[in-house]
Amino acid sequence: MTTSPTLTLSKLSCTKGGRQLFKDLDCTLQAGCWLYVAGANGVGKTSLLRMLCGLAQVESGEILWNNTPIAAQHDSYRQDLCYLGHLNALQESMSVQENLMFTSALGGVALAEQKAKSVLERFGLRGRSQQLVRHLSQGQKRRVALSRLALSPARLWVLDEPYVAMDEAGIQMLSDLIASHLDKGGLAVLTSHQRVPVGAHPAQLLELKAP
Amino acid sequence: MTTAPNTLGAGAVMLAVIKREIALGLRQKGEVLTPLVFFMVIASLFPLGVGAESSLLLRMAPGVLWVSALLAAMLSLQRMFATDYADGSLEQMVLSPTPLGLLVLAKALAHFLLSGVPLVLMAPVLGLQFGLDGRALGILMLSLLLGTPTLSLIGSIGAALTLGVRGAGVLLSLLILPLYIPVLIFGAGAVEADAAGLGFGGHISLLSALLVLSLFFSPMATAAALRISLE
């Protein structure tokens, strides 16, 4: 077992629709640290995060997980990765609990009903587990999606705008969740338009600028 | 790599996918029933269109039933990945530690259970309309039972390729129908060959071979197509 995972970006570039978004990005993230990807709309934050997950092709440069390119170790990398995109990955006509159990299963984790209930309770969704997702508000859907993080054994969290649609309490709760993940030696990469302190962990800032 | 005691194997994850698809299918009954009604209507239009001459209908029956079943199975293909694509579940499937090919295989199997199996069960009822005898009905059901999973598997490639494309339905038919031809030939041929006294063994073997081939190759092609669609 590797004790301290590292994520390294080396000379990473991205072009979209013939436009250079970013070029020669270099960055190393150690265990227990988080990377705050900042920048205006359209500078390629989401593109960078999708590349980190392996959802988008890397044109030039490399992404290394534990000093091995992620393309060479897809299977083990995916076990270490939990991604939360703009979309919540919730099926509208299934209940909150069914959704949670299914996404956990996709991540390879068998989730007991009791555990699902207690996690939902922690995320302020007490008594909602049997409700259909389509009857939830935007913020509540986001909370369900985020509760996946608490259940995931992944060491690297890639979060695209996790704070969107969250209320004050939700923002605090998510910050605490990320902080405890970092305390346990996890890593996190996130984008956000609002600055959020994550416990005592200083952010490693990666500012993307239009060239 | 530590493995927690509650880690799921690939088989268990596939089972979870199949269960979810079937639960969703049973909740959205309309989407499951529409292809069946379509199958019934198309197959019933032929006797009205070509006249009620029983010898002609009898000769046409296997072909007509097979073509109708094939079109009905295609109706529901489009939504195989569409909702998962729209709500982001597909991204999570691609990022799952379980190989995407296996998840896709599970989805295709669920599609077969929801659209293929009801077609197989309904075919004899419609076959009676055309005056097919018991033996012919049995062969028809057997050929559909072996052929419809192949339709779901091949169809999943087209569904993945046309994800997020405008006018996906028509494009999907254009892509997939030519690939369905071998299944149609051997499926409908089985009943006809037996009626002509040639036996149906050869056709059934070829249908099985097609099924095995598509079981092996189509999940790979579909997984590759999904990755492209998500980029």
**Can you write the helix and strand succession of chain A as a string?**
EEEHEEHEHHHEHEE
Shape of chain B: elongated
The structure class of chain A reads: alpha/beta
Provide the succession of SSEs of chain B: HHHHHHHHH
Shape of chain A: globular
Number of strands of chain A: 9
Total individual domains of chain B = 1
What's the end-to-end separation of chain A, in Å? 41 Å
Q: Classify the secondary structure makeup of chain B into a structural class.
A: mainly alpha
Beta content of chain B: under 5%
Instruction: Report the biggest beta sheet of chain A as strand number plus sense, adding barrel if it closes.
Output: 5 strands, parallel
In the CATH classification, which architecture of the largest domain in chain A applies? 3-Layer(aba) Sandwich
Low-confidence stretches of chain B: none
Oligomer: heterodimer
Distinct helical segment count of chain B: 9
Binned, the helix content of chain A reads: 25-40%
Let me know the average pLDDT of chain B.
90
